[in-house]
Every structure is written in structure tokens, then in C-alpha cells.
Amino acid sequence: MTAGWSLFVIVIVAINIVGCIWLMWATARRRPGQDSETTGHTWDGDLAEYNNPLPRWWLWLFGLSILFALVYLALYPGLGSWQGLLGWSQQKQWQQQVDAAEQAAAPLFARFAALDTAGLRRDEAAMRVARNLFANHCAMCHGSDARGAVGFPNLTNSDWQWGSSEQDIHATIAQGRTGVMPAWGEALGAQGVEEVVAYVQSLSGMPAPAATAAAGAARYQSFCIACHGPDGTGQQLLGAPNLTDEVWVYGGTAEAIRQTVVQGRNNQMPAHLELLGEQRVRLLTAHVLNLASAPPAADGSD
Ligand code: HEC
Ligand code: HEC
Questions:
Q1: Could you point out which of 67, 72, 114, 135 has its C-alpha 20 to 30 Å from the C-alpha of 35?
Q2: How far is the CA of 115 from the centre of ligand 1 (A)?
Q3: Whose CA is nearest to atom 3 of ligand 2?
Q4: Residue partners of 1: CB distance under 8 A and separation at least 6
Q5: What is the pLDDT along the chain (302 residues), one digit of tens a residue?
């Protein structure tokens, strides 16, 4: 806050408090019963409205509120950029709570740090913490059951856009991923789009008119293989999905595929390393690996 704004706030607060005190003082000069008078309004002939001063106990409440405000404004931040005598701040309180939570969790995390990913995957306590982390940081996009939704990948199957190895999944969570599928509507034209859509459907065994799909195959070879590969199985380096299976990020209907091809898709998995730290990213990596397959055996055969 600049000094000017700070002064402005202080002046406004001071005017308000002084105004309240004046109002109290002005009202308290007249006491009940002494000089109560009517406002001059009467109804039904004899029903008069009195203008009585406030009872004393009520005035005391106002007085106490003003006193509270003064003490509060001296102790806590409230007057412009005045920090308050206690030095309290929201950030400090939050930091204290975070530090306390970190300290409480430290022995647990020290034990987790000593385990490798396979060890984490088998550790009940570690996976309990990871499930909570997933619920807090991932479920809003991937779903509480991690099965995803349109545009948000299902993490419980064996189909991976960006790779299924421990390193790949760690990198996905830590650094995030940006999937970019260019728009092909203009380059292909309406007829070309229909042909390519039929071909993509035929790739995963869906019924598609044979001649149209065959024409689409030729177009696929010139427009799509750079990313989705000559056989349509995708390329994990680019996040280009496998088009030959039944798993779809955006849906496998002709309509959904047409929309993908015509308009393109641009999607982002946010980076989480800075937010969560390395330890928690490791726990989540182990959890995501467990979603798709059972933990490796403990006898070293993994
Ligand atoms: C804001 C929404 C959002 C949040 C939060 C989010 N994700 Fe994602 N995630 C996505 C999207 C979108 C993609 C697909 C990116 C793309 O288009 O390639 C994705 C992709 C992934 C993938 C890659 C899937 C594959 O097939 O390769 C993994 C693994 C993943 N997320 C795990 C997580 C974990 C673990 C968390 C919690 C720490 C998380 N995500 C939080 C949106 C989100
Ligand atoms: C520059 C690389 C690139 C090219 C070229 C490309 N794609 Fe893609 N495609 C991607 C990426 C990356 C995604 C994933 C987008 C995302 O994660 O949101 C994708 C997604 C898709 C999907 C959605 C799959 C699903 O699971 O829902 C379809 C269908 C598709 N592409 C078809 C095509 C066709 C047909 C062509 C050629 C006309 C093509 N792509 C050309 C990179 C490419």
C-alpha cells in the first residue's frame, strides 16, 4: 500500500470512530423520562410516536464496541499500512500452520524418502498419504476414481499419452504436459475430413465405409503420421495418442473425431513440482503407477 492510500484509510477510519463517539455523546445528553417527547406523528386519533433516547445499557454496548475497535486497531493490522503491535499477519499464521504440519509429517516423510518407488508402491502408509494428495490436487480434473472425463485422461488403464515408465509419469506430474493437436479442417477440406475420420474409426476396428476409409488412409499418410505414427499407434514424445485402441481422450464417435480433426485440440496438464515438492511428486508417481497395475512383488523380481 502506498503512503497516500495508507493515510487515506487511516483518515477514513478516524473520521468514522470520531463520528460514532460524537453520535453517542449527542444521544446521551438526553436521558429517558426527563424530556421525552413525541415526534408529532399520531395515528388512530391517540396513538403517538415517542422519540425516547437510547437506554444507558445500550449506549454502554456502543461504548464498548468503540473501545474494542481502538484496541483492535492498535494490536492488529487495520489502519492503512500499520502492522499492529502484535506483528500478526495472515501470511505468518498460515506459514506457522504449514511449518507445524510439515514438522508433524517429517518423520513419516523421512521414512518415505528412504524407499524407492517400488517400495513406496507397497507401503500402506505412503499410499494412504498419496491417496489424500490425489484427492486434494488431482481429483478435480481426473475424477475421484481417476477415471478422467472428456479431455482429462483416464489414469487407471494401461494407455498412456506421455509414457508409462516411472520416469515418464514423474515428469508428467512434476513438469506438466501440453498436448497440441493442430487443426486440419482447412488443409483437408470437408471431403478430406470425412475420409480421415472414417480411416481413424477403421483403425480401432469401428465400422466405417471401406472406400472412404481407404481414401482417408492416403491422407493420413501425408498429414498425420509425423505425430501419430505410420500405423496410428501414437508417439509418447509428443503426447500423440494411440488411435488404434478403444481408449479416447475426447471420444471415439465420428462427431468427436471430426471435431478433433477440424478444430484441433490444445490441452494442458499443469506442473506440480513447485506446488507439491519432490517428496509428494514421488508419492503421487507411485500412486498413479498403482492405479494402472498392482505393485511389483517384494522379492526383487520387479
Ligand atoms: C487442471 C486440471 C488437471 C489437474 C489439477 C491435474 N491434471 Fe493430470 N492431466 C490433465 C490434462 C488435461 C492431461 C492431458 C494433457 C494432454 O493433453 O496431454 C493430464 C495428463 C496427466 C497424465 C498423463 C496421462 C497419460 O496418458 O500420459 C498423468 C499421469 C496425470 N495427468 C496425473 C496427474 C496427477 C497425479 C495430478 C495431481 C498432482 C494431476 N494430473 C492433476 C489435467 C489435470
Ligand atoms: C503435430 C502433431 C500432430 C499431428 C500432425 C496430428 N496430431 Fe492428432 N493429436 C496430436 C496430439 C498431441 C494429440 C493429443 C491432444 C491432447 O492431448 O489434447 C492428438 C489427438 C488426436 C485425436 C484425439 C484422440 C483421442 O483420444 O480423443 C485424434 C482423433 C487425432 N489426433 C487425429 C489426428 C489426425 C486424423 C491427424 C491428421 C489429419 C492428426 N491427428 C495429426 C498430435 C498431432
A1: 67
A2: 25
A3: 227
A4: 9, 80, 81
A5: 899 999 999 999 999 999 999 988 887 776 655 556 777 788 888 888 887 777 889 889 999 999 999 999 999 998 988 899 998 999 999 999 999 998 998 999 999 999 999 999 999 999 999 999 999 999 999 999 999 999 999 999 989 999 999 999 999 999 999 999 999 999 999 999 999 999 999 999 999 999 999 999 999 999 999 999 999 999 999 999 999 998 999 999 999 999 999 999 999 999 999 999 999 999 999 999 999 888 888 765 54
Query: Residue 246 has which C-alpha cell?
Result: 478403444
Query: 250 CB less than 6 Å from ligand 2?
Result: yes
First to last CA, the chain: 58
For a mutational test of ligand 1's pocket, the pick from 142, 247, 279, 284, i.e. the residue with the most ligand atoms closer than 8 A to its C-beta, is 142
269 lines ligand 1 (CB under 6 A): yes
Q: What residue's CA is closest to ligand 2, atom 9?
A: 181
Q: Give yes or no for residue 258 CB within 6 A of ligand 2.
A: no
267 lines ligand 2 (CB under 6 A): yes
| CB neighbours of residue 128 within 10 Å | 12
Distance, CA of 185 to CA of 220 (rounded, Å) = 13
216 CB within 6 A, ligand 2: no
Nearest to 78 by CA among 94, 68, 93: 68
